[in-house]
Amino acid sequence: MKTRTSVVFIVLATLMSFNVFASSQYKHKYHAANYKVTITNVTKGISFTPFLAATHNRKINLFTIGEVASFEVSRVAEGGDISGLNAVLDQSDNVLATESSAGLLAPGQSVMLKIKGSKNFRKLSLISMLLPTNDTMVALRGAKLPRRGKVTYFMKAYDGGSETNDEYCANIPGPQCGGIPFSPDDDGEGYVYPSPGIHGHGDLSTLDYQWDGPVAKVVVERVY
């Protein structure tokens, strides 16, 4: 009787281990597809910090307009720091894959990322900071991955709402200004909203940095 109980326990433990392994394999390999994501900066004078890309299901939303940004998203908006958000997404069962670019993306330039998608992870999100700004980000939230061929999206700019838009270089990081990247004592407007662009006060010129409409073009192509 003791031997039989041990055998049953071993069989059950084996089945449970297999189910955990199968679940992991299902997430990462079932119906996996490869995608090429090409991002082009369509502004006149704005640069983008490194992009973070993620493929996920419907349960992921980077932020909601009119609501407070998460700490990790505010770090992207204020300083271009994608490490915290990347870690959060990597730990989520609702995310299939994350990828990131390197270096600044200047006006007119493009960068290409390769990322995996699948039947149960058909959404793509992208995020980066605009320089020089206090806390403006460019984002694509939950866009559909194409089942075949390619699709084009245009990305808008959003104010993170976590830092006042004083447009003084002392409070703006990056090569144009060289200021501090984060302002922990400044709560800004308190919510995410569509960015109105550069106002022209402080140290920033509308002639050099203003934009109107989308700030980036994204082409997503399935490459199998």
UniProtKB/TrEMBL annotation:
Task: Give the range the annotation lists for the signal sequence.
Answer: 1-22
Q: Which UniProt keywords apply?
A: Signal
Keyword set includes Cell wall biogenesis/degradation: no
The chain positions of domain Spondin read 25-146
UniProt keyword Glycoprotein, yes or no: no
Gene3D superfamilies noted in UniProt: F-spondin domain
Recorded superkingdom: Bacteria
Protein name stated in the entry: Spondin domain-containing protein
What organism is the protein native to? Aliikangiella coralliicola
Which classification does the entry list for the species?
Answer: Bacteria, Pseudomonadati, Pseudomonadota, Gammaproteobacteria, Oceanospirillales
